[in-house]
Specification:
This protein is α/β, with parallel strands linked by helices. It folds into two domains: 229 residues, NAD(P)-binding Rossmann-like Domain (Rossmann fold), CATH 3.40.50; 76 residues, no CATH class. The protein is 41% helix and 16% strand. The protein contains eleven helices and 13 strands. A seven-stranded parallel sheet has the order 3-2-1-4-5-6-11, with helices on both faces. Strand 4, helix 3 and strand 5 form a beta-alpha-beta unit. The longest helix is centred in the first third of the chain and has 20 residues. It is globular and about 60 Å long. The chain starts with a strand and ends with a helix.
């Protein structure tokens, strides 16, 4: 297939480009001017320069494509407005552009578990659960999903909600690997164990491709944030949940460390640190690694189940999280990031 990837210069885009090339797809990337394309600069990958605010660029990029993988989005922002401008307005612009095409391509939207909200003490999230985001980022992703549902009669769309994504080229989780590497500790927020679902970017990329080929498409039920049947939506996860301390131990093992100590940070410490960064963000107008939103997120469990993708699409992950962590460590070392 001929595929277009928005946000291709990002971490997940790097893995998706490689996966689609391996599958024999013709790959086109929508690239913003000034983006670092070093990891995806292949002779058989076409670049179209533009962004989600460039209507003519979007039409030009989508022309002739059968599938669009919409990865472009903002994960960190100074304000809610910044999240909405990219994650919602950008998605709206893309939908407007492709809905006018004679035969609109399939749109596979990469959302986030954050759109659903935390699992708390409940079982892992499934597609039919009510969505209750607790951060501006999560709310912006849910709004984007609603926008997509509003176009479902004109554009065939599917939504994929990944758990925590990790792998080579990932900078979001790099600090955890570095902390384990340099200090031999795994920081855990709060006094209780925190459990998260994880998925490697290569496994996520394969699921995105499978969803594009034979996945369900969204219907309008998700407009109000409630999707009783979960039609057209899939959670992407390699497990139903692993404690952060266990992940830290796996990272330590991949680095050849004999032991990794779990260090619990009291809620007061988390509040003080997040407040410091929140003030810094306001004063400088720049993104920070840990603000109030991150503090709120870190107090919860974030787990989801990929059972639907397994049963309906026969999607299987045969590599363990421990093996994927070893691969990630090897990538970081090879590139000099660790």
């Amino acid at each position: 297939m001929r595929s277009l990837i928005t946000g291709a210069s990002g971490f997940i885009g790097y893995h998706l480009v490689r996966r689609l090339r391996a599958a024999g797809d013709d790959v086109r990337c929508l690239i913003r001017s000034g983006s670092d394309t070093g990891f995806i600069k292949f002779s058989d990958v076409e670049f179209v320069y533009g962004d989600l605010n460039d209507d003519s660029g979007l039409v030009r990029a989508a022309e002739g494509c059968e599938v669009i993988y919409h990865l472009a989005g903002r994960v960190r922002a100074v304000s809610k407005r910044d999240f909405l401008a990219v994650n919602c307005d950008g998605t709206q612009n893309l939908l407007n552009a492709i809905s006018k095409m004679t035969t609109p391509p399939i749109l596979v939207y990469v959302s986030s578990l954050a759109a659903a909200g935390p699992s708390g003490s409940e079982p892992p999230k499934v597609e039919s659960d009510v969505s209750v985001p607790i951060t501006d980022y999560g709310e912006s992703k849910l709004i984007a999903e609603r926008l997509i549902a509003g176009f479902c009669s004109r554009v065939p769309c599917s939504i994929v909600r990944p758990a925590i994504v990790f792998g080579g080229a990932d900078r979001m989780n790099l600090d955890l690997f570095r902390t384990v590497s340099r200090l031999g500790i795994c920081p855990v927020p709060g006094w209780r164990a925190r459990t998260y679902s994880w998925i490697h970017a290569e496994d996520l990329s394969e699921l995105l491709r499978v969803v594009a080929i034979r996945g369900e498409r969204v219907d309008a039920n998700v407009v109000d944030g409630v999707n009783p049947s979960g039609v057209g939506m899939y959670y992407a996860s390699g497990d139903d949940g692993t404690e952060l301390s266990e992940v830290g131990k796996m990272i330590g093992k991949s680095l050849g460390r004999r032991g990794v100590f779990t260090v619990h940070f009291p809620p007061l410490t988390m509040f003080v640190v997040s407040t410091f960064y929140e003030v810094k963000k306001i004063l400088t107008g720049k993104n920070v690694p840990y603000d109030w939103s991150k503090a709120i997120e870190s107090k919860n469990n974030w787990c989801c189940s990929a059972q639907k993708a397994k049963q309906q699409l026969n999607f299987k992950i045969t590599t363990t999280i421990e093996e994927r962590i070893q691969e990630t460590t090897n990538w970081y070392k090879e590139k000099g990031w660790l």
